[in-house]
Design goal:
Elements lengths: L5 E5 L7 H10 L3 E3 L11 H4 L3 H6 L9 E5 L7 H10 L4 E6 L2 H14 L17 H5 L3 H12 L4 E5 H6 L1 H11 L23 H14 L3 H12 L4 H11 L11 H19 L15
Parallel strand pairs: 1-3, 1-4, 2-3, 4-5
């Protein structure tokens, strides 16, 4: 079986506006993308071992009269994924989006918390108390350097999250230019945000938690919960989430950014050399609460 004719692959990073990038790409009349965005074929060995037919099936509804691709955020932090992509697509265009790794980690934790995928927080006096894989996702320099070694700098587009926030028009133009399509096209998604966890207030979680613990047996509260359920909010998830969250002391929920800055400092400087951008604000200490 022939492999799907892909023109580009987005490799991440996670919580770095890849949903926004995917939407802007999908709207372009000369481009198409796997609509589910996340396949993880090259990074997950179990999927990779299913073979080419398994991968090809994901693209059965794509229009190959256009330039087709996919985004999977687990590809960035995987040397194995890079090697596998190179084997299948030695001349593929690679798109990578990165952001301040400390902000990325905070956003990632917010996402895991809000979706109920983690049930408690720990004090970040020792940042390694959080899952090491979460920390690993912020090491852009060493992984992007490896992708450049395999594919060449000319085949890799590096996008900064701050540029998406501050000058999305330029970012979109750069993407379309990189993919060799009409760069004057302006997608409707350009001013939208997707899957943003920055808007979620952690203080609000604690307020809701206190309300929940105090009133969860109240009949009016139970009625409200049923209304939430009808609105599509999973009450079981809410119950489990707040039960676990209620065991944590609020005074310990504080991120010590200084430790993370020291963890990432050398890699950030490597990323500066790769991107030729001043990223010094990424390793400037500015302690703040989540």
């Amino acid at each position: 079986m022939n492999k799907p004719r892909l023109h580009y692959i987005g490799i991440g990073g996670q919580k770095c506006a890849t949903s926004w990038l995917s939407k802007c790409i999908s709207e372009h009349p000369e481009l198409d993308i796997f609509p589910g965005k996340e396949i993880h074929f090259f990074s997950e060995t179990k999927k990779y071992n299913k073979g080419l037919e398994f991968y090809t099936n994901f693209f059965k509804d794509c229009d190959f009269s256009k330039k087709v691709g996919e985004f999977s955020t687990t590809y960035l932090n995987s040397f194995k994924a890079a090697d596998r992509i190179k084997e299948y697509y030695p001349d593929i265009k690679i798109i990578v989006s990165i952001r301040n790794p400390i902000d990325r980690a905070v956003s990632h934790v917010r996402h895991l918390l809000s979706t109920g995928k983690i049930n408690y927080f720990r004090n970040w006096d020792d940042p390694f108390l959080i899952e090491q894989s979460l920390i690993e996702r912020g090491y852009y320099g060493k992984y992007v350097e490896y992708y450049i070694k395999l594919f060449g700098r000319e085949n890799i587009l590096i996008i900064l999250f701050d540029d998406i926030s501050n000058k999305p028009d330029k970012v979109v133009k750069d993407i379309y230019t990189f993919l060799d399509v009409d760069n004057s096209f302006k997608p409707s998604s350009i001013d939208k945000k997707y899957n943003s966890s920055n808007a979620r207030s952690f203080s609000a979680f604690w307020l809701l938690n206190n309300i929940y613990l105090k009133y969860r047996n109240n009949s009016l509260f139970k009625i409200s919960t049923s209304i939430f359920k009808k609105m599509g909010i999973n009450s079981v998830l809410i119950n489990n989430f707040f039960d676990k969250l209620g065991k944590v002391k609020i005074e310990k929920i504080k991120f010590k950014r200084s430790e993370l800055i020291e963890i990432y400092r050398d890699d950030i400087k490597k990323t500066e050399r790769i991107t030729k951008r001043d990223l010094s604000d990424w390793y400037t200490f500015n302690e703040k609460e989540i």
